[in-house]
Amino acid sequence: TERAAHIARNIRSEESLFSLLVEEKTGNSKTKLSGADFKTLADVLIQCCIVAQLEYEFPSLSGHVHGEEEASFTNQNGETVKVAVDICANPQDQVALHAAVAQTSALLCAVLDNNVEAARALATAVHQPLDTRVLEDEVLRAGISGDVCLDRVALWIDPIDNTSGYISGIESADHSDHAGIHCVTVLLGVYDISTKLPVAGVVSQPFYHRDNAGCWRGRTLWGVADGDVTHHSKCLGQQQSDGVGVGRDVVVIGSRNESPALITAVEASAATAAREESSGRQVRFSCGNGAGYKALCVVTSVVDAYLLSNPSTYLWDTCAVQAILASTGGLLLDYDKALKAMTSSSLSCDLSSLQLLYSAEGNRSEAAPKCWCNSGGLLAVRDADIARLLLCRCSAIQHP
Predict the structure, then answer these.
(1) Residue 366 appears among annotated catalytic residues
(2) Does the annotation mark 57 as catalytic?
(3) Active site residue 163
(4) CB of 285 within 8 A of CB of 254?
């Protein structure tokens, strides 16, 4: 994910690349390649890098790494070009590195209608050596065993989640509005093919903050929840120790297109809620951008829950964050299933059996990409009691 974050930052910092992104925002159509096409190329190139790196280091994963994007493009001459990245086995070897950059640049030239400058800049970002020792050291200190049976797992990845925020580049001083470029995430989730549950996840925020020199710096969070084995980024343990906070307001994040009736039900006054349930706690609903970011806000204790009642997220949006949430004791539920279970069995239902499930096939009754949609919505929480509180309030909409 650090490679993906590096490419995402590089595209916005290189004038030859960013100028293509601006075209979508301004509607300028003077060049052959539209901003929308280039944004898709950025997505696909990042995804290809992740897939190539994983399959190079773990050959048994070949064919089991799934993503949002297709790898084929048709350029202005009607030529179909398949984007592929060959991993340089020894990036310290300057001759080999130069050859890899030249090969990728030539391929990207065909996609970018011979825009040599943009192709070269992208290819350089793809193959530039990176220092990932800090993250690797943290994983090693956590004591994670490398003896994982890769034959039993597959992956869902989202190369750039919240592409609108990525294109706009709007910055937020303190992240309190949950909108803008800091909401962009790179998502890599590993799930067990048999149980269909996520077992590991990595999330990168390429534009987390600017350093003293004004350069973007990112952060990477990870988690493992494989049966009884759980590990996660050290900072998450520190944040989780604060807990939900008995008696304080509950903060829920959701979509800007969420149902007004649901928001009204969730934000029932403390006095009204006290007559309906035992907590009587005030709930505040806020809006945010990017499914990955909103779920990450639950993981990092910025909010208490992420609630979405409509089918607007996909398996690649949720797999990574669900694994990290599970590693800290949280849950990412199928909202519709949880609501029905809560309605039929009150507060006694086992919420852990209602989590989102993953596969490469998805819902076979639907065509792509709808077959991979989280059609029942979702509810992400760190604390099961918060889930029950919200489901209790939401059930009033379905059963007045």
Answers:
(1) no
(2) no
(3) yes
(4) yes
